[in-house]
Each structure stands twice: as C-alpha cells, then as structure tokens.
Amino acid sequence: MSVVFDRPHALADVSTHYCPGCFHGIIHRLVAECIDELGIEGKTIGIAPVGCSVLAYNYFNCDMIQAAHGRAPAVATGVKRANPDKVVFTYQGDGDLAAIGTAETVHAATRGENITVIFVNNAIYGMTGGQMAPTTLPGQITQTTPFGRDVKEAGNPIRVCELLSSLDGPALLQRVTCDTVPHIRDARKAILKGFQNQLEGKGFSLIEVVSTCPTNWGLSPVKAIEWLRQNMLPYYPLGVYKEVK
Amino acid sequence: MSEKVIMKGNEALAEAAIRAGCKCFFGYPITPQTEVAAYMAKRMPKVGGVYLQAESEIAAINMIYGAAASGARCMTSSSSPGISLKAEGISYICGADLPAVIVNMTRGGPGLGGIQPAQSDYYQATRGLGHGDARLLVFAPASIQEMCDLMTTAFDLADKYRMPAMILGDGAIGQMMEPVILPEPATRTIDKPWAATGTELKRAHNIVNSLYLQPDQLEDNVRARFERYVQIEATEPRCEEYLADDADILITAYGISSRIVKSAIKKARAEGIKAGLLRPITLWPFPKAVLKKHAAHAKAFLDVELNMGQMIDDVRMAIEYARPVEFAGRTGGIIITPDEILAKLREMEAK
Lengths: 245, 351
Ligand SMILES: Cc1ncc(C[n+]2csc(CCOP(=O)(O)OP(=O)(O)O)c2C)c(N)n1
Ligand code: SF4
What we know:
The structure holds two protein chains of two kinds.
Chain A: H1 23-38, E1 44-48, H2 56-59, E2 63-66, H3 72-82, E3 87-93, H4 94-100, H5 102-111, E4 116-121, H6 151-154, H7 160-164, E5 172-177, H8 181-199, E6 205-210, H9 214-217, H10 221-235, E7 239-243
Parallel strand pairs in A: 1-2, 1-3, 3-4, 4-6, 5-6
Antiparallel strand pairs in A: 5-7
Chain B: E1 4-8, H1 9-19, E2 24-27, H2 34-43, E3 50-53, H3 57-69, E4 74-78, H4 80-95, E5 100-106, H5 122-126, E6 137-139, H6 144-161, E7 164-170, H7 171-175, E8 177-181, E9 207-208, H8 215-235, E10 239-242, E11 249-252, H9 255-270, E12 275-280, E13 282-284, H10 288-295, E14 300-305, H11 311-318, E15 325-329, H12 338-350
Helix pairs in contact in B: 1-2, 1-6, 3-4, 9-12, 10-11
The complex binds thiamine diphosphate (TPP) and iron/sulfur cluster.
C-alpha cells in the first residue's frame, strides 16, 4: 500500500462534511500543516465560526471554541488577552467576517490584536444554502439575488484586505487562493507567516483565501475553479495588502 | 481583617470583583455604570489583570465568552440597553456551560429610556436572557456591602454550576457612597479541566461549544443543565425576612426599593399596621419556599418595584395565588417614596 499523503497531526483523523471541490478542506489542511511545522498544536486554541466551517472544532486536534456568528475575533481577543502565551486563530467565512461580524473584524484589526485570522471568501453564504454574501460579485446569481446582484439595490461587494489596509493595527493582510499547486504553496506560506507573526508578537494577521462553493454556485468542482479564475480573481486580486516586516 | 472604607457603589463593585479573583474585564461605556470600567482600567494593570474597552457590548460579551472558555474568571458590566445587546452572548455562555459574571446597573427603559435608576429589567434577567432553555443566577443586592459580598458568591457559584451569574443592581446602588468592608482577596484556584487552554499534547482536545445538530443530543444536553437548575432551586435561594413573622401585610421588594420599603414599614408599625418585608436576594432561583411559608399567616401581599410590576408574577406563583397581591411602584427613573408605600399600606389595611 502506498501512502498518498500524511495527515498533519493537527488535523483530526475524521472525514469532513465538506462538499467535493470545496476549498474548506484544503485550507484546513494548510492550517494544520502550519501548526505542525511550528510545533504549536499543544498551545493553540482555534475559534470556529458559524458557517460551513462551524464543525471545524471537530477537525482540528488543538483545543477549539465555537463562536457566535461573526463574533470569532472578539472571542479570540478574550482568549488571547486571558492567555497571551497561547496561539489563537479564527477561521471564518465571508458572511461571518464581513457582514455580521464586520465590527469585530475591524476592531480586532485596528487594535492589532495578536491573533491569526483565516478568512475564507467564497462569495456566498454556503451553510444557509447560497444567499448573497458581502463578497458576492456584481451580477452574481444567488438565492437572494435571483436576477444577479444589482449593486444599485444590493450594494457593492466588500474587499476585506483593501478595506483593512488603511488601518495601522494589522501586521499582515494577504489574499491567496488554492486553485493551483503554486497558489496552494503561496497560501501555505502566507498562513505560516500569519502564525509566525503571532509568535513574534507582531499583531493581527489576516489571510484571505479566495475559495469555491461548487454546491451553491451550481457548478461542478472543475467549473467552479474556472469560475473563480474568471470572476473572483479579477475582483479580488491576489497579493500582499499590508505587511509589517 | 479588612478595614471599613467609604466607596462609591460602582467602584466598590469593581474592587470586590478583583478581590474575588476576576482576571479579565471587558466592557463598553454606558451610564450609570461607567465607573466600573474606569476603576478596572486603573486597577487591572496593577494586579496583573486584563482591562479592555470593547467596540460594543456584543464584542465585550464575546470577549467574556472567550476568556471564560479558556479558563479565566471574568466579568462584564453594563446597563439596560447594553445588556440587551449582550443577550446573544449570554445565551451562548449558557449553552457552552461557561462561568462568567455580568453586572446590570439597571436604568429606565424601554429603548434608550433614561439614565436614572430603575428595576425594569427583572423579566429580562429572570426569564432567561437570550434565546433557548436557559437560566442565569441573578443576585439583587440592596447595599454596597451586600453587592461586594455577593460578588464573591456570584463568581463561586458561576464556577460551581458552570453558568453565568448576574448582579442586578440599579443606578442608585451604583452611584451612592456607603461604608463597606471589602472582601479578603480570594486565594483558592478552581480546576477547569474542560477549558480550552491548549492540549500541551497531553490530552484529547477540549471543545467549548453550544451546537448539537442531533435533537436527542441537544435535548440530553439541556436536560443535564436543568438537573443542575433543580439542584440550584433547592439549595441556593436567598431571602431576607424583616419583621415578617407576625406581619399581616407582607411587602415583597428587592434591591434599592427594599430599603425604602423598610422605612415605610417602620412608619406603618408606628401606626399599628403590622407590615413586614420579604426581600429576595436571589431573583433566580426565586425564594419560593420562604414566600409560601409566610403566605400561611399574611392576609395580603404588596409587591413594590421600580417598574410597572414584574417580580409580582413570581410572588403570585410562589404563594400559589393563595393571597391577594397588590402592587405599588414607580418607573422611568423615579424612586418611590416611603409615604407612597405607606399610603398603599393604609389603603390595604382599611380593606
Ligand atoms: C445570529 C445569526 N444569524 C444568522 C445565522 C444563520 N447563518 C448561519 S451560517 C450563515 C452564513 C454563513 O456564511 P459564510 O460566513 O460566508 O460561511 P460559509 O458557509 O460560506 O462558509 C448564516 C447567515 C446564525 N447562525 N446566527
Ligand atoms: S456548501 Fe459550499 S462552502 Fe459549504 S461545504 Fe459545500 S461547497 Fe463548501
């Protein structure tokens, strides 16, 4: 029998509920690999959001806390302030982080809260069945924008990294994706840096991962990646938006 | 021995919390409890604790959720409109079985209401703040001394039963100055093997969570919590009985209004009206047994509150509707006077 890949120790040996072609699984793996590489699993506390990744508390082997919808940065703040020597990360979707939890996100960022935020931007509300998200693209069809997002009615999408980049607090704001092997490598590096920043006390690091939701986009996994490249990446350009060296 | 000092209610409360072992305070400014935060901001850094001004009450209560989930004794403080915002977080704290202390220095409502003392958040505090089948311990101090003493109790019982505890004060108790003997600093530490503090790779991961997607699991979880509630209702109710044993008219009042009631009772007794007071110190668990016991001899009850009549429901239920229960109260930030209560007592006595 050949070993296809080794499961990172920080990733629990259970099967996840994520749909085929969903990036959540890949991103979990990258986070776990970084935790392994830094040898911090024993002192890491993760905060799971409300969204498709709510069950992340079952998937990571470190201690986990499930937060109310959008409140993960505040919960992480409480954990980190009470336990400054521990490593604290949140894992959040776009509805969680950029709609209901916008205030918590902005203020954790501007405080330079010494935490690591993994932000999964899939331009849709996955868990509740595909409604418009704050990052849903202009013209994108969702359950609640059945004729395509009309920005005159529904408003414009939020570019989170750009929005936060005016703040003095963040140590790292970087947008990555997972559509190709090189991009996955870049994503891993960014997440690693996000955790390293925390270990070095540099403050708030947010890594936005532009992601797929084949199920609610109504596309096959392959088509979803194509759609991401054609539509998401032009609107959400990859890159580093802020970095404190 | 601790010495007697004169302190403002809100500051004494903050100091008592620190002495009870509170390590983290998160809050958002609101009248009439801002002095709690101001005191914490000054003192916490000196005692190695955490003070942080949150961006909202929602953030503050979720910081509490995080600090409590990772094992810290922690407290937040607010007043009525801010407590409404904390409701979601309090529900999660209940659902995840976390200990925490929440202070409400109640002001008049609804809406933005006013900034003067009121007791109009009784329903909110006792009917389960936030959604779901859940309770919180609710303590209603009537003096600064009692508020300080109850602070230690609130933290200890919150830890013991793994649930939130509320100190339900009001603007008057928060703002007034009184002599107080501050509690001795707590020395005991409480083991929290369930807390998310990092596995150190020595145990399976802890999960702090309120989500149960299987209905039978959620029901089991809620039932287990209610078993604790039954135990609490049997052992934790507290009530002061003042001139109650021979009383014909028993007044029920808590917190600041009970002090005014006492003056009214003295005046009434001087006129030959046998009035007494039952003062619930815990609003949940409600001291039902004490009220029921006295219903055997009292002819009538008079409930006095700084609202339109909220605890009166619990009084009626506790005495199983065996006696008439009348009401006297002011609301909107107006404090009832002893004479208003006396007038009501005279009217009842004449019946
Ligand atoms: C206070 C509150 N409002 C609404 C919901 C319902 N809800 C659950 S998940 C979700 C959206 C999640 O979307 P997103 O954060 O983008 O994550 P995804 O599922 O796409 O990964 C909503 C609105 C909730 N659980 N709590
Ligand atoms: S619904 Fe979308 S975001 Fe949720 S698991 Fe499926 S593909 Fe992923």
